[in-house]
Structures are given as C-alpha cells and as structure tokens.
Amino acid sequence: MALARSEIDARLLVLYENRVLLASHRGQAWYFLPGGRVRPGETVEDALRREIDSQAGLDVGAFDFVGCIEQAYTEDSVAIHALTTVFTAPLPWAAQIISNDPGVHLASIAIEDLADLELRPAPLKDMIQRWAAGRPPLWRTTLPTV
Questions:
Q1: Where exactly are the structural domains of the chain?
Q2: What is the pLDDT of residues 12-50, one digit of tens each?
Q3: Which residue of 52, 100, 106, 120 has the fewest C-beta atoms within 10 A of its own C-beta?
Q4: For domain 3-141, is the CATH number 3.90.79.10?
Q5: What is the pLDDT at residue 2?
Q6: H-type helices in 5-145, by residue range?
Q7: Which of 45, 20, 17, 7 has its CA nearest to residue 124?
Q8: Helix residue ranges, H only, the chain
C-alpha cells in the first residue's frame, strides 16, 4: 500500500491586459501558476512571497483570494492529497518578470490561448477565465463526492 501525505500549495495569478503569467519546468509540456509548496510552520501568504521572490525576484503586496483546488494524485508511489490555494496581487510598478530559477520558464500567455494548454491542476483554466471575467472566488475539487 502506498504511503499518503497532504500538501498545500500557494500560487499567484498575475493578469495583465488579457494575459496570464504561467510557469513551466523546462522540458515539460504543461504549465502551472508561479508559486510552490507551503513548508511546515509557514503561512500560505509567507510561502507565496518566498516562492515568488525565489522564482521571479518580485516583492508582491497584499493578496486577494482567487480560489482553491482540491486534488489527489500519485507521485513516486505516494498518494498525495493536495490543496492548491490561488491568490492575486498587484505587482510593483514597472516590474521586470524574469525567471530566477534555471529550471523554471515564465511565460505571458493570452487568456484565449489557455484552451490549447495543459495546466496543472486542470481546474486552473476555469478558475483563471472566471477571475478574468470578474467572477467571485472559486472552490474546485477533482475528488469524487459521496
């Protein structure tokens, strides 16, 4: 039987002129929002600030909650139950967005092109499109309900 663990991710949704900032691991065909794992004892917001500073060298301001996605998957024979929290924040004026992580590529993608991309977790497409259209925060789960 596989071991099981829970994880919390903190992700940043950056929208600008009908474009979204996405990240990918170099050599991978799928995308995700910038951010990463919350460490034990760390708040979600602190984790997001740390990850965004590490990945893009950005010091972001106050966060607004966009939504949360619950999912389950298996990685290296370990069952993982994950919550992906998504926030947005204004970027510093004239921010230069470049990847500080040689293994991560940052890209500005038109929202209308999201349909052609693989995003992980998958409900991010709907979440991004809803938020861009001015709709309220969103909860999504990929787990079956009882």
A1: 3-141
A2: 999 988 899 999 998 899 999 999 999 999 999 999 999
A3: 100
A4: yes
A5: 55
A6: 44-56, 124-132
A7: 20
A8: 44-56, 124-132
